[in-house]
Every structure is written in structure tokens, then in C-alpha cells.
Amino acid sequence: MDTTATIIFIIVSFSLGLIVIMQRDRVPAQLRRFVAISSIFFIAFAFFLIVYSLATMNG
């Protein structure tokens, strides 16, 4: 199984979370909640992918 896309998604999700935390003052108030909720969703899904990958390892 090619895990390149999964690894890229995990890196981008954590990077998005970090950027949202670091730049939260620059995000407009109308978008702040949407950006935070979407970041939480992406990070949670990235954690799920990490756990799923570890659980389905052959070895």
C-alpha cells in the first residue's frame, strides 16, 4: 500500500493546526470558528489515520 498521500495529509493537517494557532489574531472573526473546527476535524482524522496505519501493519 502506498502511504505517500496519507503521510502528506498528516503533515499538512498538523501544519494547518500550527498555523491556525500561531496566526489566530489575523483570522477574521467571522471565519475564526469555521477555521478552528475544520482544523480540529483534520487533526482528528490525521490521528485516526496514524492509529489505523499502526493497527494494520503487517509484522
Biggest sheet record: none
| Cα separation of the termini | 14 Å
The count of helical stretches stands at 2
Low-confidence stretches: none
| Overall geometric form | elongated
Radius of gyration of CA atoms, rounded to a whole number: 14 Å
Please, what is the average pLDDT?
91
H/E topology pattern: HH
Number of strands: 0
Structural class: mainly alpha
Question: What portion of the residues fall into strands of 2 or more residues?
Answer: under 5%
Helix content: over 70%
Describe the structure.
This protein has helices at 4-22, 29-55. Helix 1 runs antiparallel to helix 2 (29-55). The radius of gyration is 14 Å and the shape is elongated. 78% of the residues lie in helices and 0% in strands. The model has no long low-confidence stretch (mean pLDDT 91). It is built from two helices and no strands. It has 59 residues and is mainly alpha-helical.
Offer a quick outline of the entry.
The chain is built from two helices and no strands. It is an all-alpha fold and 59 residues long.
Question: Which features characterize this protein?
Answer:
59 residues, mainly alpha, 2 helices
